[in-house]
Amino acid sequence: MADTVTAEDPITGEEIEVPADVEVGEIIDSPVTGAELEVISVDPVELEEAPELEEDWGE
Amino acid sequence: MNVGICYSRIRRDEKLLLSELRDRGHEIEKIDVRKQTFSLSEPPEAFADVDVLVDRCLATSRSLYTTRFAEAYGIPIVNSAETAAICANKVRNSLALERAGVPTPATDVAFTKESAMDIVERFGYPCVLKPVIGSWGRLMAKLDSESAAEAIFEHKETLGHYEHKVFYIQEFVDKPGRDIRVVALDGEPVGAMVRKSDHWLTNAAKGAETEEFELDDEARELVAEASAAVGGGLLGVDLMETGEPQGSQSSGQDARESGYTVHEVNHNVEFKALNEAADVDVPAAVVDWLEDTVAGVES
Ligand SMILES: Nc1ncnc2c1ncn2[C@@H]1O[C@H](COP(=O)(O)OP(=O)(O)OP(=O)(O)O)[C@@H](O)[C@H]1O
Fold first, then answer.
1. InterPro entries from the xrefs (chain A) (predicted)?
2. Which residue of B has its CA nearest to A58?
3. pTM, 2 dp
């Protein structure tokens, strides 16, 4: 099991575990709600609800 | 070297790239384009020390402007603004391939549903309607019947944003349940995979199964030509097998004999699936290429 750190889920306020090696800008799925969360800072890890998919996203 | 990664979301692909750059001791400037402001003459501070910028903007609109600004400031950026502009738009993409003599599916464009129906009647059913801007197989339609085609055109005309009133209609290619994704650096394949699905859409983003694919000489040649057609760089070239054995196609006079057709080139290529499916190290190849690119700029 990879190292994890805890952070607050921005939607529910619960403590959640996230991989210790997350990067600013990375998206993780909330283990509580399944919603996409964006890492806005590390050390400590802060999360925000990720922006919704837009039509021009892609390759 | 100092590499600026322009992004608005760190996908697995960017993460792989960042970790390869870090392992090699390169400096990295992570540039969240959502936080930047771009003036006409002065680059944003985040661009100040970079040797090269890598455009990894997930949002195509941001990619188009970021690359334009970088070039205006004289800062090297991969891929180029012109490559982004061609690849971001399916009409321009098809025109570039056609112009370069690369086999590409027959495609016609119309601006009204009546004219679009004329195209569909010429192509016959099924045929394919694609949004000119968009990716991951979203909003693609296989038109199986006249009534379906009419309904889709009417919906698009009524509900769509103006880009959806440009009807990009393509012949349906009867591919063998899979298409081919090649990741290439200036036309040189890094690796290739097939994407298999029972659905006619075989995008990895739609959950297709992937498997490494061995490119033959013909496919390699087409990848090089397709890459050159859009200005080169780090690209994803998508091909379909036409089922025509090489040399047996006998359509138009200047139609090229080919077992493949190239349906598009992607400028913001996602390579994590290939990295997993194939025995290649895509981020390592990309960083090798970036090192050469920067050395070329500096000398
Ligand atoms: N003319 C066609 N005939 C049959 N199948 C097609 C045709 N064009 C595309 N497809 C299938 O649909 C899928 C999506 O097509 P295409 O690559 O044009 O869309 P996209 O949304 O730009 O995808 P991406 O940008 O992720 O590569 C392809 O992987 C291919 O399997």
1. LysW (IPR005906)
2. B135
3. 0.94
- Look up residue A31 and give its amino acid: P
Q: At residue B253, does pLDDT exceed 50? A: no
Under an 8 A CB cutoff, do A26 and B10 touch? yes
Query: Pairing relation of β-strands A4-8 and A15-19?
Result: antiparallel
CATH number at residue A41: 2.20.28.160
Count: domains in chain A: 1
Homologous superfamily (CATH) of B174-277 is ATP-grasp fold, B domain (3.30.470.20)
Q: Does B21 touch chain A (CB under 8 A)?
A: no
ipTM higher than threshold 0.95: no
Give the start-to-end residue ranges of the domains of chain B: 2-86+282-298, 107-171, 174-277
**Domain assignment present for A57:** no
Taking the Cβ of residue B22 and every Cβ of chain A, the question of whether any pair is shorter than 8 Å is answered with: no
Instruction: Tell me the nearest-neighbour CA distance from B253 into chain A, angstroms.
Output: 34
**Per-residue pLDDT for chain A (59 aa), expressed as one digit of tens each?**
579 999 999 999 999 999 999 999 999 999 999 999 999 999 999 999 999 999 999 99
Residues 6+ apart with CB under 8 A from B233: B78, B79, B80, B83, B185, B186, B227, B267
What DSSP designation does B150 have? H
